[in-house]
Amino acid sequence: MLKVNDISVRYDLISVLDNVSFLVEEGQFVAIVGANSAGKTTILKTLSALVSAFQGTIEFFNERIDHLPPYEIAAKGISHVPEGRRIFDKLTIKENLLVGAHVRDDQQDVLETLEEMYALFPILKQRQTQKGETLSGGERQQLAIARGLMAKPRLLMLDEPSLGLSPILSNKVIHTCEEIRRKGTTILIVEQKVTEVLKLVDRGYVLQRGQIIMEGKGEELLESDLIRKAYLGL
Ligand SMILES: Nc1ncnc2c1ncn2[C@@H]1O[C@H](COP(=O)(O)OP(=O)(O)OP(=O)(O)O)[C@@H](O)[C@H]1O
Ligand SMILES: [Mg+2]
After folding, report:
1. Domains of the chain (ranges, CATH numbers)
2. 138 lines ligand 1 (CB under 6 A)
3. Nearest C-alpha to atom 2 of ligand 1 is from which residue?
4. Could you read off the pLDDT of 70-80 as tens digits, one per residue?
5. From the first residue on, what is the mean pLDDT of each consecutive set of 10 residues in the chain (234 residues)?
6. Atom of ligand 1 nearest to the CA of 83
7. From the CA of 106, how far away is ligand 2's center (Å)?
8. Residue 41 alpha carbon, nearest atom of ligand 1
9. Closest by alpha carbon to 187, among 214, 225, 215, 161?
10. Closest residue by Cα to residue 213 from 15, 47, 20, 6
11. What was the pLDDT predicted at 230?
12. Whose CA is nearest to atom 30 of ligand 1?
């Protein structure tokens, strides 16, 4: 589905991504894990064309997308839930969700997706007429993910959805991703919560200072010496 081939990115003259390659197959749940400032957000921004790579190619369903503007990438079915659970504070929860559906060309089915989101995140249904600013951190993250799903994406990209949440809430968010995947949406997640996420994903990539240093099945990575030493302190 998604084939990222040798992309390199610099901010000014500083190299941030160095020959990064990875694959996401349709229906999979894939994670890129790495520490602070490894380049995780930059990968997702590059895929959404918010940052441009000076080298490499990105293919989505065998079609190059690396020269398209952000709105065309969204229209192809790639939905990006950015870092920091940004939502519209002054819009209601329902309005926030409807904004997420603006790229769709099947507007007649949008209310059906809205009901699906309310089933997946019951708190959003209860609070649908309240302003975004009234939500707690965990609820905002649920809204941000649901808004991304309102686009009915073929690929949902999540940037550290667990950041700043309590361990219980962050686990809940990561498990919700698993549920979304079971319902048929392909997911690419970038995370620092290495253990929680690698337990659930089909495939993981380890990013260190802008380079993919290891890849494999989630469970395999968790058992590897490198992950145990570098990220789990074992
Ligand atoms: N616009 C920018 N200009 C210059 N440097 C930047 C810019 N954006 C990010 N960087 C730098 O690029 C590196 C990678 O940043 P990035 O945000 O991709 O990391 P990350 O893995 O998402 O980190 P975190 O886990 O803290 O979110 C960092 O050193 C960061 O300071
Ligand atoms: Mg980041």
Report:
1. 2-88+153-230 (3.40.50.300)
2. no
3. 11
4. 999 999 999 99
5. 98 95 96 94 97 97 96 94 91 96 87 92 95 92 92 94 82 85 93 88 95 94 85 66
6. 27
7. 32
8. 22
9. 161
10. 20
11. 76
12. 37
